[in-house]
C-alpha cells in the first residue's frame, strides 16, 4: 500500500468576499461607459481639476453679474477720479469690527495737477453684504437693486480703484467678464459648425470635394492671422449697434478658426469611414448625412470637446487684442479688452497701474482653459 500524500492547510484567514470584490472592481471598469472612464482619468489630473474648479465659478458669475458687482456699470464718482484701490481691514484701533475700508480723501496737487489720495484712519466704512445699492436691470429685463456687497451708507468702496471717469474698476471687470467669456463660447460654436460641415464632407466624400476643401483650408491658413483680423474688424460699420458689433466680432473669430478643426475632422473620418459598421450602414441604404452624424462623429466627440477647450482661449485673446487696438468691441460695450484700451499710454502704467488689472483675469482664464484642455486630452486618449 502506498503512503498518502501530506495535506497542507493554509493558516491565513479566509476572506470569502475577496475574489468577489476584485471581480466587481474589474467589472466596474469594463462595464463603465466611455464618458465615465474619461471622467475617472480626468480626475487624476490635479491641475486640470483645479482649472475646472476655477472656470466653473467664472462662467457661473456671468449669470449674476449685476448681483455680484458693487456698483452699476455706468455709475460715476466724479469726486474719486483715478482713485487707487482701497485696502480691506478687519481691525480698527485694535478692535475687530469686520471687513471695512477707510474713507478716502482727495487733494489736488496744484504743482503737478495730480490727484493725491490719503486714508482717513479715523473713519472706518463697514462693508455691507446682501444689501440695497445701485439700481440695475437684470440682463436688461428685470429691475432690481440687490447686491452681494455694498459700500457703507454715504461712503465709498473701490476695491480695485476707479478709472478716468470715476467708475469702479471691480464692477467693470465683472461686467467685462460677461462679454469676454461669452465671446469664446459663441465664436467656438460658429467655428464648430463650419469645421464639422466642411471637414465631414471632405473626409467622407473624398474626391474633388476633399481636394476643394483642402485647398480652401490651405489658402486661409496661409494668410497672416492678425492683419486679417484687423481688416475684417475695421470693415464693420461704425453705425452698427453694440450688439451687432459683438456678434460681428464673434462671427469673424469663428470664420477664421474653423480650418484647423476641419482638418482634424477630415483625418478622423478618412480613418473611420472604412470601418465595418460604416460599411454596414452604407449597405443598408443609410444616407451620407446620417452616417456622418449618427455613426462617425460620435466616435470622436471626446476629441472635439478637447479641441474646443484649447480653441476658446485663443478667441478670448483675439477679442482682447482687437478691442485693445480699438478695432473690436467699442464702448458702451465693456469687455476686458475695452478696459485695457484705457491703459495704452505710459502715463497710465506709471501713475495708475491698477488700470492694467484686466490683464489678470485674461491670464487666469487662458491658463485655466489650457490646463483643462491638456487634462481632457490626456483623459480622452492617454496613449497620445
What does this structure look like?
The protein is an alpha+beta fold and 384 residues long. It is built from 14 helices and five strands. It has a three-stranded antiparallel beta sheet with strand order 1-2-3, with no helix packed on it. Strands 4-5 form a two-stranded antiparallel ribbon. A hairpin with a 4-residue loop joins strand 2 and strand 3 (114-126). Helix 8 runs antiparallel to helix 11 (301-324). The longest helix is centred in the middle third of the chain and has 37 residues, at 169-205. Residues 18-24 have low confidence and may be disordered.
The amount of helix comes to 40-55%
Please tell me the total number of domains.
Answer: 2
Mean pLDDT: 83
Biggest beta sheet summary: 3 strands, antiparallel
What is the CATH class of the largest domain? Answer: Mainly Alpha
Distance between the amino and carboxyl termini:
66 Å
The topology string of helices and strands comes to HHHHEEEEEHHHHHHHHHH
Return the CATH topology of the largest domain. MetI-like fold
| Alpha-beta content class | alpha+beta
CATH architecture of the largest domain: Orthogonal Bundle
How many runs of DSSP E, i.e. beta strands?
5
Shape: globular
Tell me the strand percentage band.
5-15%
Briefly say what this structure is.
The chain is α+β, with helices and mostly antiparallel strands and 384 residues long. Helix content is 55%, strand content 14%. The protein has two domains: 86-157, no CATH class; 172-380, MetI-like fold, CATH 1.10.3720.
Amino acid at each position: 500500500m502506498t503512503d498518502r500524500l501530506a495535506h497542507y492547510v493554509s493558516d491565513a484567514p479566509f476572506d470569502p468576499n475577496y475574489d468577489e470584490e476584485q471581480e466587481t472592481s474589474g467589472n466596474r471598469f469594463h462595464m463603465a461607459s466611455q464618458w465615465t472612464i474619461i471622467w475617472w482619468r480626468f480626475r487624476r489630473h490635479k491641475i486640470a481639476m483645479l482649472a475646472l474648479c476655477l472656470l466653473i465659478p467664472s462662467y457661473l458669475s456671468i449669470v449674476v453679474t449685476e448681483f455680484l458687482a458693487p456698483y452699476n456699470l455706468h455709475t460715476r464718482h466724479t469726486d474719486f477720479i483715478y482713485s487707487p484701490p482701497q485696502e480691506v481691514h478687519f481691525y480698527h484701533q485694535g478692535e475687530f469690527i469686520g471687513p471695512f475700508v477707510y474713507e478716502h480723501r482727495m487733494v489736488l496737487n496744484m504743482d503737478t495737477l495730480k490727484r493725491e489720495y490719503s486714508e482717513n484712519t479715523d473713519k472706518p466704512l463697514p462693508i455691507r453684504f446682501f444689501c440695497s445699492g445701485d439700481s440695475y436691470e437684470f440682463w436688461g429685463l428685470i429691475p432690481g437693486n440687490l447686491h452681494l456687497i455694498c459700500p457703507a451708507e454715504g461712503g465709498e468702496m473701490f476695491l480695485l480703484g476707479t478709472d478716468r471717469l470715476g467708475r469702479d474698476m471691480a464692477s467693470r471687470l465683472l461686467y467685462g467678464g460677461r462679454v469676454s467669456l461669452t465671446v469664446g463660447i459663441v465664436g467656438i460654436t460658429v467655428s464648430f459648425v463650419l469645421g464639422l460641415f466642411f471637414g465631414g464632407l471632405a473626409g467622407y466624400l473624398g474626391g474633388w470635394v476633399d481636394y476643394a476643401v483642402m485647398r480652401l483650408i490651405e489658402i486661409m491658413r496661409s494668410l497672416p492671422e492678425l492683419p486679417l483680423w484687423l481688416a475684417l474688424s475695421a470693415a464693420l460699420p461704425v453705425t452698427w449697434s453694440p450688439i451687432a458689433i459683438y456678434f460681428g466680432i464673434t462671427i469673424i473669430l469663428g470664420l477664421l478658426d474653423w480650418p484647423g478643426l476641419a482638418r482634424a475632422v477630415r483625418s478622423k473620418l478618412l480613418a473611420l469611414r472604412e470601418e465595418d459598421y460604416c460599411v454596414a450602414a452604407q449597405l443598408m441604404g443609410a444616407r451620407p448625412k446620417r452616417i456622418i452624424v449618427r455613426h462617425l462623429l460620435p466616435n470622436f466627440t471626446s476629441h472635439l470637446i478637447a479641441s474646443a477647450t484649447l480653441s476658446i482661449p485663443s478667441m478670448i485673446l483675439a477679442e482682447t487684442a482687437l478691442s485693445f487696438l480699438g478695432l473690436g468691441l467699442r464702448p458702451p460695450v465693456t469687455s476686458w479688452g475695452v478696459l485695457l484700451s484705457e491703459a495704452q499710454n505710459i502715463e497710465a502704467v506709471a501713475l495708475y497701474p491698477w488700470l492694467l488689472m484686466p490683464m489678470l483675469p485674461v491670464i487666469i482664464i487662458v491658463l485655466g482653459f489650457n490646463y483643462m484642455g491638456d487634462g481632457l486630452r490626456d483623459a480622452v486618449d492617454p496613449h497620445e
